[in-house]
Design goal:
Blueprint: H1 2-22, H2 36-51, H3 56-67, H4 69-86, H5 94-113, H6 117-123
Helix pairs in contact: 1-2, 4-5
Pfam families: Acyl_transf_3
GO molecular function: acyltransferase activity, transferring groups other than amino-acyl groups
Keywords: Acyltransferase, Membrane, Transferase, Transmembrane, Transmembrane helix
Amino acid sequence: MKIVTIFLLLVSPLILFLLAKTTYHNFFAEYFYDILFVKVVSLGLFLTIFSLSLNQDRNKWIVFLANQTMGVFIIHTYIMKVWEKLFGFNFVGAYLLFALFTLSVSFIIVGMLMKIPYFNRIVKL
């Protein structure tokens, strides 16, 4: 079961990216939320987390990250556009760095916004 979940988690985003790049010439795949591959990625991620044996420390991290998901959802598209304008996609490994950078910066910005009382209610689910 773990092999299947890890396989789904790793391969599905690549298929979604290749579909977006070759068919629709859109690198972000932001308009493909309701196709099959997005559901497969979601299922793979859910099964991966579901199959982990969680202790209290990991449970705290999951709750901490789960509280930030709405804010990351709101902010990540802006960060993607800034990355594209500043750096483009002209170097090897740009797409992998693009995803890691976008998620990292999104979580950092949302973490800072959650320290402000008014914004805490906006970005928290």
